[in-house]
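Internal ticket - ligand job 638, iron/sulfur cluster:
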Amino acid sequence: MDYIGIDIGSTCAKVVVMDEDEKIRHQSVQPTGWSSVDTADIIKNMLLEKGISPENGKVVATGYGRVSVPYADKTVTEITCHARGAVWLYEKKNMAVIDIGGQDTKIIILENGMVRDFAMNDKCSAGTGRFLEIMANTMALKPDALCELARKGKDVKISSMCTVFAESEVISLIGQGEKKENIAFAVVNSIADKVASQCSKMNMSSEEVFLTGGLCECSYLREVLEEKLGKPVLTKPECRYAGAIGAALCSRNI
Amino acid sequence: MIQLPENFETYAEARKAGFLRMKELKESGRRVVGIFCSFVPTELIEAAGGTAAPLCATSEEPIPAAEADLPKNLCPLIKASYGFALTDTCPYFYFSDFIVGETTCDGKKKMFELMNDIKETYVMQLPARRDEAALDAWEKEVVRFWKKLEDFYGITITEEDVKKAIRLKNREREVMLRFLELGKLNPAPISGYEMGTRLDGLGFNPDIEERCRIIEARTEEVKKDWEENYKGKPSRRPRILITGCPNSGIREKTIKVIEELGADVVAFDCCNGTREKVEKVDENLPVTRALAKKYLNINCSVMSPNETRMEYISNMIDEYQVDGVLELILCACHTYSIEAYNVKKTAMAKNVPYLMIETDYSKADSGQINTRLEAFLETISQFK
Ligand code: SF4
Ligand code: SF4
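stdout (structure tokens):
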């Protein structure tokens, strides 16, 4: 039996297929594009080509496009899926999970492997992947390049928490001839500040914090977060699949 | 999921039917006083031969108009209430002879100052504490309001009139409480969405006796249905306690949705729930003292401190066998959002998952709210 987890986020769609022994048989990522329905179709064809049949397996869809997967047996929210994915990835039962996604940021507190509490950012894209993307665009950079550049910067601060105002701040910094790396530094620190302030509202009693979601590959962001939270922030390359892994695990309970 | 009865009157329908009755009533010479909040001793209005018209606004329509005078960053209930008055689009406001406000939260009490330019708005000075001095001061306000009604209408309100009104309102509280306590039954016998909508809708019916009859009949009907069809059949649907700000304006996108997602809303700690109903006016005390005491004890977050609300929530969790506490906060409501910290602690101490949703009357955040509610139910089901 194939256990298929599909995580359709606002920017990327992730697929993970697990076998009976919870081993990952397949994982892949692709841009979500304009329509989640089309994306779900493309995923289905791709799986069929690999000899994996969604019809014969169990499928759980998660993420913001979870309702657009007609062949899913069940939908489960990102909160539960990221939580289960993180428990599987880190083999820990007590931890805080921070998922910085394309559209929203989630903080999940796990106790004994169960979600004890969670928070999602409101209506606003500050502190999310979208924020990074917009700023990178303004600076004519790729998001990962911005992250790497940020490491070399210093001193500059963006004070506005609102994406629209922050963008004009970035534009005026560019206008003033501020060094690119310093602006990049300000952008990444602004994301970390916003995330840390959300964390401060939660009871993070656990020692470790795990980073999942699209931005976990930005190593500088991880370091800054570590500093601001005063706790080790761990991540793994597979972390961007945490939601899909969790979904695949959830499909075992159907 | 529990179905709504076929003859179910939506809030909008109840409101509309209420308008027509109010118009007739007004034409027949009945006095109408507009009120905003559960702290107003409506017994006095009743004793003055009047009807208290609920003006708490729940629609986003008049908000843009209100924002011409008021800050954007203000609770939607206050903005909508003022907006209706400003645009003269609320018949209840229109039919009111005057308005009674009270010094509850800062937003409301400052808004009342502006509202007074549109229609006379009489403000009762509500103390924020619950001690002897506060009770004395509040009793004086009750007396002052009594006098105000007499002066405004040129009438005399006798103690007997007030006693009669107290008995009538106490009976109403009893009837409403019995209806709301249907939520203690397990499995839940009635949807929380229906309970809330019905009680709000009834507020528009000016005849208290008739309100009681309608609710008594529905209570009996639901009980009978439960005995016959639900009793003894365990349900896996999580039981939710609603707490926080007045929720009439956000009921569709929260309470209705969480029930559609598979939960039963069984308990309401809010001013349109059991909060005002649990304590009756003591019929053995001198009337003004009795009224003052009852109303000062309402567990609203504008009171400081307000531990009694935490005790109440904690008891409700047991009595209604609650699996999750959902706190609904209207954007920019400081008193409730600060107190949410204690509510969360109270729920966590009972090992009951807690979720707070802060929202306004717009539909923009419905998608995110759905995800949160779904995730909340998934969280609860891990513990069940
Ligand atoms: S929440 Fe408090 S202040 Fe607001 S309407 Fe209800 S009783 Fe009045
Ligand atoms: S919800 Fe809060 S801010 Fe709004 S009127 Fe009631 S107490 Fe005031």
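Auto-summary: Residues 180-200 of chain A form the longest helix (21 residues). The helical segments of chain A are 36-49, 78-90, 129-138, 143-150, 163-175, 180-200, 219-229, 242-251.
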